[in-house]
């Protein structure tokens, strides 16, 4: 037989500290309170509404920790940015901020919280520590950096993980990213079509995505035939370091008339370095970036860029992770890049 509810006015009652105390006040079992607040189980509409009304009246909110223990879920998604190749880079980088913003929108729309972690790997077990901590239900890794082997090892035992970046043959984790080799090729072809013959690629090929862009760049140079040259300058993603490296190179390089930058940030530093040396863009040197971020429209001159659809990519990342969380397979997704032409490659 159910206990009679406490007849004292709500105003005189202390706020319940747990489900057990609310059950005592409501005159029902703890299980009934739990089912009523969670919207589960076979309860009468009257009982469910009475318990919920009482909880609202007394300002009671069930403990998320207790709920997590019952459901085995945390309600949070981890978003991890590993920076093994570029330890001084920050997530305030425009690329990271753009992609992370889209991911956050998609995660919260699914009813999850987001836990963001920037990792400078000093221990090969850094990802094991994250997935084993029990703080998140799944993980989105933004960029592989130089940590592909670490990601692969964890993916073989931890299913709810999706990675933004290039697909690497033989690796077990699910990737979502642009066709970087195609992006490199069409970016170089854009420069070649505008009369460039001595091209340079600025970027760090230790990063899988940049390495694939470089392969595409070289594909285009080879297809262009004799008389076309494509040089490589390894360049940091950190703007200040990139500017120094690019300035030193341009001071000694002769005849460069087209530059493919592996990111819009590197392209911006390239335009600045050229301006510092009195070389005009696009009249003396044409410059194209990669990503087509909002900042590309505001450089001087506005920057041509290989566009990857980061909004669509973020949606695909979260969709793939939700499938993983549901126990379903999720295939790798390759987005098709396009070229956005602006004044940095066209005098018109």
Automatic annotation (TrEMBL):
Record keywords: DNA-binding, Transcription, Transcription regulation
Molecular function via GO: DNA binding
Record carries keyword Isomerase: no
Domain HTH lacI-type: 17-71
Entries under Gene3D superfamilies matching the protein: 3.40.50.2300, lambda repressor-like DNA-binding domains
Stored InterPro entries: HTH_LacI, LacI/GalR-like_sensor, Lambda_DNA-bd_dom_sf, Peripla_BP_I
Top-level taxon in the UniProt lineage: Bacteria
Name of the protein this chain belongs to: LacI family DNA-binding transcriptional regulator
Lineage: Bacteria, Pseudomonadati, Pseudomonadota, Alphaproteobacteria, Sphingomonadales
């Amino acid at each position: 037989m159910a206990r009679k509810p406490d007849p004292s006015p709500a105003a005189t009652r202390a706020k319940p500290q747990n489900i057990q105390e609310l059950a005592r006040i409501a005159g029902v079992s703890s299980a009934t309170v739990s089912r009523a607040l969670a919207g589960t189980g076979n309860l009468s509409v009257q009982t469910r509404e009475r318990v919920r009304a009482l909880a609202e009246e007394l300002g009671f909110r069930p403990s998320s920790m207790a709920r997590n223990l019952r459901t085995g879920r945390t309600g949070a998604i981890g978003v991890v940015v590993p920076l093994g190749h570029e330890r001084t880079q920050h997530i305030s980088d425009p690329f990271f901020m753009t992609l992370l913003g889209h991911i956050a929108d998609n995660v919260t729309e699914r009813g999850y919280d987001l836990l963001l972690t920037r990792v400078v790997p000093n221990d090969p077990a850094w990802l094991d520590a994250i997935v084993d901590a029990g703080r998140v239900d799944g993980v989105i890794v933004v960029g592989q950096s130089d940590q592909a082997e670490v990601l692969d090892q964890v993916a073989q035992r931890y299913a709810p993980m999706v990675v933004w970046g290039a697909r690497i043959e033989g690796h077990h984790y699910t990737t979502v990213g642009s066709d970087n080799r195609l992006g490199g090729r069409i970016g170089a072809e854009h420069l070649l079509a505008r009369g460039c013959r001595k091209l340079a690629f600025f970027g760090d090929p230790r990063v899988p995505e940049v390495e694939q862009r470089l392969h595409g760049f070289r594909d285009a140079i080879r297809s262009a035939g004799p008389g076309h040259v494509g040089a490589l300058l390894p360049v940091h993603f950190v703007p200040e370091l990139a500017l120094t490296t690019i300035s030193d190179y341009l001071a000694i390089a002769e005849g460069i008339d087209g530059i493919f930058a592996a990111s819009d940030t590197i392209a911006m530093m390239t335009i600045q370095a050229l301006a510092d040396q009195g070389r005009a863009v696009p009249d003396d040197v044409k410059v194209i970036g990669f990503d087509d971020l909002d900042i590309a429209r505001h450089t001087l001159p506005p920057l041509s860029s290989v566009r990857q659809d980061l909004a669509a990519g973020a949606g695909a990342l979260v969709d793939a992770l939700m499938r993983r969380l549901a126990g379903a397979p999720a295939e790798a997704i390759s987005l098709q890049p396009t070229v956005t032409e602006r004044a940095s490659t066209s005098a018109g």
